[in-house]
Write a structure and sequence with these properties.
Oligomer: heterotrimer
Number of helices of chain C: 10
Order of helices and strands of chain A: HHHHHHHH
Distance between the termini of chain A: 35 Å
Number of helices of chain A: 8
Largest sheet of chain A: none
Shape of chain A: globular
Helix content of chain A: over 70%
Number of domains of chain A: 1
Structural class of chain A: mainly alpha
Strand content of chain A: under 5%
Number of strands of chain A: 0
Largest interface: A-B, 40 and 31 residues
Helix content of chain C: over 70%
Radius of gyration of chain C: 18 Å
Shape of chain C: elongated
Strand content of chain C: under 5%
Order of helices and strands of chain C: HHHHHHHHHH
């Protein structure tokens, strides 16, 4: 059992296993995402109240989910690195930060673009978008902190601590912002009204969410592999690989 | 298809700008996230290969002298 | 030396040092007043508009003041080696750090709370809200100082870590400011603010208990490396 975890921590093992997994994951996630995109853009029925711009939901919601899931991935990798000093955990921690930040950024931008035709403004301080903005800053903090240390391994440890502190805070932040929004909500307009979603509109969303999660795994693997080549460049197996 | 024509698909009853720009930005960003590590790895491997060839030459050169 | 007396020594030492460096204590407060000056300049001096934003504004000023006060709370000890001694001592660092946080709270958050009525007058906060302002700052500034100290510990060896500190810490301040300003806002509108004060107190307690763990871990990373 311990041997399994020991192997799990080895960059070389990760590299080899990802080499065999990547083609499958890549094809599967591409298939799901393309199918869901075409379905959502061209075949799903239009939302009565919001018009066609509701189709942005098919990329806004998955990226928002991954923004949050990505932070927890980063924090868990950080915890594993702090406790067990596993090399792969450090790599995943480092790599998950910018990926998650991009996901958060996409969620913010698609949310803003969606807001314009729906509510008339490019930016609306509703609970979800505000929480997403705070999450973006939490990511940026981790990235900035990790990069500010001269020694990379110390930077990773500091970043891991910060990620864990953020993890404890995220539920508190989300609940606070939710509550804050309900307190200040203007009486006339309801921004976060959630219409029950028609099943014809739901399926492409589910496919897209699964596709995005698989894509996230692909992205982590791709970035981790590049990191591994960089860090292990002095080892024999990398030298062999280079030939 | 929900829309009557490709033109309708692009126009989306006036919301096309928003929908297509969202999807465009997202796909560009995801593409960049995929291509960046692939290229980085490629460059690294090339540099490693060149360095090992260089070191090999040096070793051969030293063993001759 | 018993744990209690070690903590007491720590508290005394820090308070003595802070008392000697009065400018270090005064600067963040002066900064708070400066910000209180800038806002009317930016928003206009009309009492109505200032009174409207006063609850949130006062809390933001207090927040920034506490943040700046915690910048560098570990720097000096780190650079002269006393931090290594603190971490190596037989007493658990957890409690020693807590004692330090207490000292720094007394020199920052506590003083901000004491001074807040003056700031409130400058920003036309309704007098009904003064008491709650003081109470909310008293209860909430503990978490502000604690969370700020985590950032300070993580950036102790980073050059020009001040801006990085703000970037790290401000997102974590979000819940505190939400409930802090809500408490004052409620009081200004003659509503009951007990619930918000209770939540502030709960957050502070959580911070006091959990933060020394993070701080110790962060300091160890830097001390072990140096």
């Amino acid at each position: 059992m311990w041997q399994f975890f020991h192997k799990l921590g080895s960059p070389r093992w990760f590299y080899q296993i990802s080499s065999s997994l990547l083609p499958w994951l890549g094809v599967l996630s591409a298939a799901l995402i393309i199918t869901a995109t075409v379905w959502g853009l061209a075949f799903a029925p239009m939302d009565f109240k919001q018009g066609n711009s509701f189709r942005i939901i098919y990329i806004h919601v998955p990226s928002a989910f991954l923004a949050l899931a990505g932070y927890y991935t980063m924090a868990i990798a950080g915890a594993v690195y702090l406790i067990w000093r596993m090399k792969m955990a450090e790599i995943v921690l480092r790599v998950a930060a910018p990926i998650g930040a991009v996901m958060t950024f996409l969620a913010l931008i698609t949310g803003a673009i969606w807001g314009k035709p729906t509510w008339g403004a490019w930016w609306v301080w509703d609970a979800r978008i505000t929480s997403m903005l705070v999450l973006f800053f939490l990511y940026m903090g981790v990235v900035a902190l990790a990069g500010s240390y001269q020694r990379a391994d110390l930077g990773s440890k500091a970043a891991a601590i910060l990620a864990l502190v953020g993890t404890v805070n995220i539920p508190i932040i989300y609940k606070s912002v939710d509550w804050w929004y309900s307190l200040h909500q203007p009486a006339t307009i309801k921004f976060t009204s959630k219409p029950s979603i028609h099943p014809d509109m739901l399926w492409p969303l589910l496919l897209m969410i699964v596709g995005f999660y698989l894509l996230y795994a692909v992205l982590i693997m791709l970035h981790a592999r590049a990191e591994i080549v960089q860090r292990e460049q002095r080892t024999r197996w990398i030298q062999e690989l280079a030939k | 298809m929900y829309f009557d024509s490709i033109g309708d698909l692009i126009h989306m009853a006036g919301h096309g700008v928003f929908v297509w720009s969202s999807y465009g930005i997202t796909f560009l960003a995801l593409l960049a996230l995929i291509i960046y590590p692939l290229r980085k790895k490629q460059k690294l491997l090339k540099a490693i290969k060149q360095r090992s060839l260089f070191e090999q030459e040096n070793v051969q050169h030293e063993s001759k002298t | 030396m018993s744990l209690a007396s070690a903590c007491w020594q720590m508290l005394r030492r820090d308070l003595t040092l802070l008392a000697r460096r009065k400018m270090d204590v005064l600067n963040p407060l002066l900064f708070g007043f400066l910000v209180a000056l800038l806002f009317p300049l930016g928003l206009g001096p009309a009492p109505a508009s200032l009174a409207l934003v006063a609850p949130g504004l006062l809390w933001i000023i207090a927040l920034l003041s506490c943040l700046w006060a915690t910048d560098g709370v570990f720097d000096e000890d780190f650079h002269d080696g006393s931090l290594a001694l603190i971490l190596l001592s037989p007493q658990p660092a957890y409690f020693l750090i807590m004692a330090r946080l207490m000292a720094h709270w007394l020199a920052s958050g506590f003083i901000v709370a004491l001074v807040s009525p003056v700031l409130a007058l400058m920003l036309y906060l309704p007098s009904e809200a003064m008491g709650v302002l003081f109470l909310s700052l008293l209860l909430g500034s503990a978490s502000l100082v604690c969370i700020g100290a985590v950032g300070a510990a993580l950036t102790v060896n980073v050059r020009n870590g001040g801006v990085l500190l703000s970037l790290i810490v401000l997102p974590l301040y979000v819940p505190v400011i939400i409930f802090g300003s809500a408490a004052v806002q409620a009081a200004a509108q003659l509503q009951d603010s007990t619930a918000y004060l209770a939540i502030l107190a709960a957050m502070s307690l959580l911070a006091i208990v959990l933060v020394p763990l993070a701080i110790t871990a962060a300091l160890r990373i830097n001390v072990d490396a140096a």
